[in-house]
């Protein structure tokens, strides 16, 4: 089970890296649509459409443009949010096995008492 869990987690991290920019765009469009009065049913539909369009436009532009510099810019646009998201995932996962300073302080006080 550990092997399957680690494999699933790695797959999720790589999928997160691919879809970080479309998810970021969709989340921002969702918040803008929700605050502009689209409602709870309209805002997710608009967000899914915006995220899907972002992914399709990015993949199409990367496939059709022959200039190496513009392709590098498109790749960097997709890589920047993926880098930030990957960092946050690894940072959050590293906190799981480490006790917080407050818990360790309380445990130390209980041991003295």
End-to-end distance: 41 Å
Shape: extended
Helix count, per DSSP?
Answer: 5
Please give the number of β-strands. Answer: 0
> Over the alpha carbons, how many angstroms does the gyration radius reach?
20 Å
User: How big a fraction of the residues is strand?
Assistant: under 5%
Helix content bin: over 70%
Order of helices and strands: HHHHH
Mean of residue pLDDT values: 85
Low-confidence stretches: none
Major pleated sheet: none
Index terms:
single chain, 113 residues, mainly alpha, 5 helices, 0% strand, extended
Give an account of the 3D structure:
- The chain contains 5 helices and no strands.
- It is mainly alpha-helical.
- The mean pLDDT is 85.
Describe what is shown at a glance.
With 113 residues, this protein is mainly alpha-helical. The protein contains five helices and no strands.
């Amino acid at each position: 089970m550990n092997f399957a869990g680690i494999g699933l987690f790695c797959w999720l991290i790589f999928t997160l890296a691919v879809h970080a920019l479309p998810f970021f765009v969709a989340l921002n469009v969702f918040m803008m649509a929700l605050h502009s009065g689209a409602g709870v049913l309209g805002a997710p539909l608009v967000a899914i459409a915006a995220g899907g369009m972002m992914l399709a436009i990015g993949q199409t532009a990367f496939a059709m443009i022959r200039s190496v510099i513009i392709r590098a810019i498109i790749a960097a646009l997709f890589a920047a949010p993926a880098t930030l998201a990957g960092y946050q995932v690894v940072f959050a996962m590293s906190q799981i096995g480490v006790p917080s300073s407050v818990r360790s302080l309380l445990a130390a006080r209980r041991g003295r008492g």
